[in-house]
Amino acid sequence: MKRLIETIVKPLVDHPDQVRVETEEQEGRLVCRLSVHPDDMGKVIGKQGRVASAIRTVVNSASAAGRKRVRVDIMD
């Protein structure tokens, strides 16, 4: 999941070298914490959260094969 999120997010931002994804197991679910440069937050979230929602949709679809729930948190 980490590589998938990085592959989606890096082309969207101006500072791809500062894209970080940390994963952690919590209560039977995989939690992915995405952090980007503060200037790139708007690009990752998008208008009315549409880009963030699309990222979460793709990640959840990819995780369906593994039968494990995934949550993506976006942080600065």
TrEMBL record:
The keyword Cell wall biogenesis/degradation applies. It comes from Bhargavaea ullalensis. Keywords: Cell shape, Cell wall biogenesis/degradation, Chaperone, Cytoplasm, RNA-binding. The keyword Iron-sulfur does not apply. Forms a complex with KhpB. Belongs to the KhpA RNA-binding protein family. CDD domains: KH-II_YlqC-like (cd22533). This is RNA-binding protein KhpA. Gene3D superfamilies: 3.30.300.20. Pfam families: KH_KhpA-B. It comes from the Bacteria. The gene is khpA. Signal peptide: none annotated. A probable RNA chaperone. Forms a complex with KhpB which binds to cellular RNA and controls its expression. Plays a role in peptidoglycan (PG) homeostasis and cell length regulation. It is found in: Cytoplasm.
